[in-house]
Design a protein that fits this description.
InterPro entries: Carn_acyl_trans, Carn_acyl_trans_N, CAT-like_dom_sf, Cho/carn_acyl_trans, Cho/carn_acyl_trans_2. The chain is of the alpha+beta class and 796 residues long. The chain has 28 helices and 18 strands. The strands form four sheets. An eight-stranded mixed β-sheet has the order 11-7-6-8-9-10-1-16, sandwiched between helices. It has a six-stranded mixed β-sheet with strand order 12-18-17-15-13-14, with helices on both faces. The chain has a two-stranded antiparallel sheet with strand order 2-3.
C-alpha cells in the first residue's frame, strides 16, 4: 500500500458514499434539518459545506478504525504509523473546523430564521399556485376535435330544425339536405377532412371561428362582450352587504316594490347574524373601492406569474374528484410525459381541458382593422391600465426582474390614482370602443397620426388588463347588471381582453372581449382570484397606505392629444351609445322553490329543466317555438371552442303544449318532462364530445365561401337562415363564486338569457330590446313556468 494512499482515497471518494451511518444522520441532521423547503440559497450552500465536512470527518473516523483493526496483522508498521498519525491529526483539525462552522451556523441561524419566513412569504406571494404538474403538461396529449360523419350531421340538422317548421317547410328542408349530402356537401366534407389531416396541431373549428369573430363589424359592447360579477369577498365586503344584496333580489321580484321601500325595510332588520343591517356601512366609498381593487390586482398578478412560469394548476375536470383529485394523481402525472399522463388521467376519469386560450387572457387587445380585426399580445409589458373618470393611468406592477411589487406599493399607487380629483374627462376616448369596427378603425388611425398618442395606445394595448374604478354604488340588480354589461362607455375600453370593473361599494366583476376565448379561462381566473383573496386578503378594508412610498415610480398618466374631428366623433359616440344602452332592458329572477339538489332528487337534469322552463315561458308569451341556442364547451379537445346545443326539441314542444293545454294530467306530464330531460342530456353529451352539427356545417360553409364558388342551396335557404336566427340565446353559469352573469341578445328581436343553478336556488338574468320584447314580462312568465313544473313534480 503506498504511503498515505488509503486515507487520501477515503477523502477523495467521500462524495461517492451511498449509505450513511446513524451517527452520520445525527450529526448532519443538526445542520440539514428542515432544509428541503428552505428558499435562502446562500444558507443552503453553507449547510451543504458543513455536511461535506461531516462526510470527510466520518470518512477519516471510519478509516482510522480500519487501520487499527488491520494493524495487528499488517507487517508494514511504518505505513500504519504514518496513516494513523495523519488521520489522527486530520481528525483533530476537522473536529475543530467543523465545530467552528457549526458555531457559525448556529450564530447565523437566528438571523437566517428571521429572514426565512419573510423570504418564503415573498416566494409564496409571487405565485398564486406552484403546481407539481406544469400548466401545459397535458396540452400535447389532448385529443383532436373530431369531424362528425356527414350523414349524422345532416340527420341532426333535420332534428334541430323540426320543432319550429311546419310539415311543408320540413319536407322542403329534407330535400335540400338530401341534395347537399350527396353532392356539394360530400365534396366540402372531403376537403375539410384533408385540411384536418394536414393541420394536426389544431382543431378544424379554431381558425374559422377566430376569423368569424374578427370579421364581425358591429360594436363589441352588448353584441359580443359578456360579463360576470363576483360574489362579495369574505374579507373585502361586510356580511351585511351580501345579505342586503341577496335580499334585495328577492324583495324586488314584485315590480311594484322600489329601492326606497327596501331601504326602509332593511334598516329595521334585526337578528343575531345581521345587526343593524343597512346598505351603507362605516367605510367610505374610497376605502371599500381601494381595498377590493388592490386585492384583485395582487391576486390577478399572482395568477399571471403562475401562468407565465408554467406552475398554474392544469385545468382538469375530475368526474370522481375523491378518487382522482389526489396527491397520488398529481405525483403520477407529473412524472410521466404529457401524452402518457393524459392517458392515465383519462383512465382515472379525470379529463384535462384545453388551455390554449389562457395565452390571450393577459396583455391582449383586439385591434380594429378594416374588414378584419387583429389580436395583439405584448407579453413584455409589466403594467396594468387603470381607468378612472375616463382618464388612463399605467401602473407598473412588475419590476425589471419580473417580480411583483409589494401589496403596500400597489395599495399606495391605486390610492394615488383615486386622489386625482380631476372631473370626468370632457372627451373620454373609451367611448370610441363603443362604435362599429370600421368607424373605430378610421378614428384609431387618426389618433395614431398625432404625436404622443401612439405610445399611449400601445401602452393600453399591451397592458395586462384594464382596471375600471367606477363611482357607482347600487344594490339594484338592473343597474348593477347594466353597469357591468355596458356602463356609460366613459370609463370602459371594450377592446381589451379583460376589464376588471370595481364599483365604489366594492362590488367587482369582469367584462371580457369574446373573440379570443369562450369564458373557460375567465371563469377559472375569477374562481382562483376569489379564493385567493378570501384566504389571504393582502389589504384590509380601511387599512392606511404607506405614505413613504413614491407612487410616481409606478404610476404614469397617459395623455392623448385630440383634433376637433375626433372630439366631435367622441361626442356623437357618447350620445349614440347612451340611446343604445337605454333601449336595452335587463331583469333578474331568483327562484328558491327549486334548486339543484331538489331536481337531482327527482332524477332530472337541472340544466334540462331550466331550458324547458325557458321554452314554456316563451311559448306562453308568444305562442310559437323558435330556434334556441345553448353554448356547450368543447375544451376537452385541443383548441376546442364551443358547440351549439339546440334545447328546442320535439320532446320539449310536446311537454309545453301539454302543460299549457286546457287539461292537465300530472302523471302524463311527468313522463313528458322526463323525456325532455333525457333528450336534452343526450344533446349536451353529443355536443361536448364534438358530435353536434352546427360547427361542422359552419366549417363547410366557410370552405365554400373561400373557394369563391356559389354557395350550396342549403346555406342560402331561408330555413338555414331561420335556424341560425337565435331568438333565445342562453348560457349556463356554474360557479360558486359568481353572483351575476349575462350578455346581450344576439338578434334584435331576441332574448339573452344567462342562468345559474345552485344548491340554494335557480337564477336568471334576461336582456332584450324594449321595442321588440319585454324582459320583465318574460321573467314573470318564467317564474310561472317554474311554478308549473314544480306542481307537476309535486303531484306525480
Amino acid at each position: 500500500m503506498p504511503r498515505g494512499s488509503g486515507f487520501d482515497n477515503s477523502i477523495k471518494n467521500y462524495e461517492n458514499e451511498k449509505t450513511m451511518q446513524p451517527e452520520n444522520n445525527r450529526l448532519s441532521g443538526q445542520i440539514y434539518k428542515n432544509d428541503k423547503k428552505a428558499n435562502n440559497w446562500s444558507y443552503v450552500k453553507l449547510k451543504k459545506n458543513a455536511i461535506n465536512l461531516t462526510y470527510i470527518l466520518l470518512s477519516a473516523h471510519y478509516y482510522l478504525h480500519s487501520v487499527i483493526a488491520v494493524a495487528a496483522v499488517c507487517s508494514k508498521k511504518a505505513d500504519i504509523d504514518y496513516d494513523i498519525e495523519v488521520a489522527d491529526s486530520f481528525l483533530t483539525k476537522m473536529k475543530a473546523k467543523l465545530g467552528d462552522r457549526l458555531e457559525f451556523s448556529q450564530r447565523s441561524s437566528e438571523k437566517i430564521n428571521n429572514n426565512r419566513d419573510q423570504e418564503a412569504h415573498d416566494l409564496a406571494y409571487q405565485f398564486l399556485e406552484r403546481s407539481k404538474i406544469p400548466t401545459m403538461h397535458f396540452q400535447d396529449g389532448l385529443p383532436r376535435l373530431p369531424i362528425p360523419k356527414l350523414k349524422y350531421t345532416c340527420q341532426n340538422y333535420l332534428n334541430g330544425i323540426r320543432p319550429f317548421l311546419n310539415d311543408e317547410q320540413f319536407d322542403a328542408a329534407k330535400k335540400l339536405v338530401d341534395d347537399f349530402r350527396h353532392s356539394s356537401g360530400e365534396r366540402l366534407n372531403r376537403e375539410l377532412i384533408l385540411w384536418y389531416r394536414r393541420n394536426k396541431h389544431t382543431s378544424y373549428i379554431a381558425e374559422p371561428w377566430f376569423d368569424m369573430y374578427f370579421r364581425y363589424r358591429a360594436a363589441l359592447p352588448i353584441n359580443q362582450n359578456p360579463f360576470l360579477v363576483w360574489k362579495p369577498y369574505n374579507e373585502s365586503f361586510n356580511n351585511d352587504q351580501v345579505f342586503v344584496y341577496c335580499s334585495f333580489l328577492n324583495f324586488c321580484r314584485d315590480a311594484n316594490r322600489t329601492v326606497e321601500q327596501f331601504v326602509k325595510q332593511s334598516i329595521c332588520l334585526k337578528n343575531s347574524t345581521f345587526q343593524n343591517v343597512t346598505i351603507f356601512n362605516n367605510l367610505n366609498a374610497i376605502d371599500k373601492l381601494l381595498s377590493v381593487a388592490t386585492n384583485i390586482v395582487i391576486s390577478a398578478c399572482r395568477f399571471k406569474r403562475s401562468l407565465d412560469y408554467n406552475c398554474l394548476q392544469p385545468e382538469v375536470y375530475h368526474f370522481y374528484p375523491n378518487k382522482s383529485n389526489t396527491p397520488f394523481f398529481r405525483n403520477i402525472c407529473s412524472r410521466l410525459p404529457g401524452k402518457l399522463a393524459w392517458l392515465i388521467a383519462f383512465l382515472m376519469k379525470a379529463f384535462p381541458l384545453d388551455m390554449s386560450q389562457y395565452s390571450f387572457l393577459f396583455n391582449t387587445t383586439r385591434i380594429p382593422v378594416m374588414i378584419k380585426d387583429q389580436l395583439n399580445t405584448n407579453r413584455s409589458s409589466k403594467c396594468i391600465i387603470v381607468l378612472r373618470r375616463g382618464y388612463f393611468y399605467s401602473l407598473t406592477v412588475f419590476r425589471k426582474d419580473g417580480s411583483l411589487i409589494s401589496p403596500a406599493e400597489i395599495h399606495a399607487s391605486l390610492e394615488y390614482i383615486l386622489k386625482d380629483n380631476r372631473p370626468v374627462a370632457e372627451n373620454p376616448i373609451g367611448l370610441l370602443t363603443t362604435v362599429g369596427r370600421e368607424q373605430w378603425s378610421l378614428l384609431r388611425s387618426q389618433l395614431l397620426m398625432i404625436d404622443g398618442n401612439e405610445r399611449s395606445l400601445l401602452t393600453i394595448d399591451g397592458g395586462l388588463f384594464v382596471l375600471n374604478l367606477d363611482e357607482l354604488q347600487s344594490v339594484d340588480p338592473e343597474t348593477v347588471g347594466k353597469s357591468f354589461l355596458h356602463g356609460d362607455g366613459i370609463n370602459r375600453w371594450f377592446d381589451k381582453s379583460m376589464q376588471i370593473i370595481v364599483h365604489a361599494d366594492g362590488l367587482a366583476g369582469v367584462n371580457f372581449e369574446h373573440s379570443w376565448g369562450d369564458g373557460v379561462a375567465v371563469l377559472r381566473f375569477m374562481e382562483d382570484v376569489y379564493r385567493d383573496i378570501s384566504l389571504n386578503a393582502w389589504i384590509k378594508p380601511g387599512q392606511p397606505t404607506d405614505a413613504s412610498i413614491d407612487c410616481s415610480e409606478f404610476v404614469e398618466k397617459l395623455e392623448f392629444k385630440l383634433t376637433k374631428p375626433i372630439e366631435e366623433a367622441i361626442k356623437v359616440a357618447g350620445e349614440t351609445y347612451r340611446e343604445w344602452c337605454d333601449s336595452l332592458m335587463l331583469r333578474t329572477l331568483q327562484y328558491q322553490a327549486m334548486n339543484r339538489k331538489y331536481l337531482k332528487e327527482k332524477n332530472l337534469s337541472p340544466d334540462a329543466i331550466m331550458q324547458t322552463a325557458i321554452q314554456v315561458a316563451f311559448y306562453r308569451l308568444h305562442s310559437k317555438f323558435v330556434p334556441t341556442y345553448e353554448s356547450c364547451s368543447t375544451a376537452a379537445f385541443k383548441h376546442g371552442r364551443t358547440e351549439a346545443v339546440r334545447p328546442a326539441t320535439m320532446a320539449s314542444n310536446e311537454f309545453v303544449q301539454a302543460l299549457l293545454g286546457s287539461e292537465r294530467n300530472f302523471a302524463q306530464l311527468r313522463i313528458l318532462l322526463e323525456a325532455c330531460s333525457k333528450q336534452h342530456s343526450l344533446l349536451v353529451k353529443q355536443a361536448a364530445m364534438g358530435k353536434g352539427f352546427d360547427r361542422h356545417l359552419f366549417a363547410m360553409k366557410v370552405l365554400a365561401e373561400r373557394r369563391g364558388d356559389r354557395l350550396p342551396d342549403l346555406f342560402i335557404d331561408d330555413t338555414y337562415r331561420t335556424a341560425n336566427h337565435f331568438t333565445l340565446s342562453t348560457s349556463s353559469l356554474f360557479s360558486d363564486v359568481i353572483l351575476l352573469g349575462g350578455f346581450g341578445p344576439v338578434v334584435h328581436d331576441g332574448y339573452g338569457i344567462g342562468y345559474s343553478i345552485t344548491d340554494e336556488q335557480l337564477g336568471f338574468l334576461v336582456t332584450t330590446y324594449r321595442l321588440k320584447r319585454n324582459a320583465q314580462q318574460f321573467c314573470t312568465s318564467l317564474e310561472q313556468s317554474l311554478n308549473d313544473i314544480r306542481m307537476v313534480l309535486e303531484n306525480s
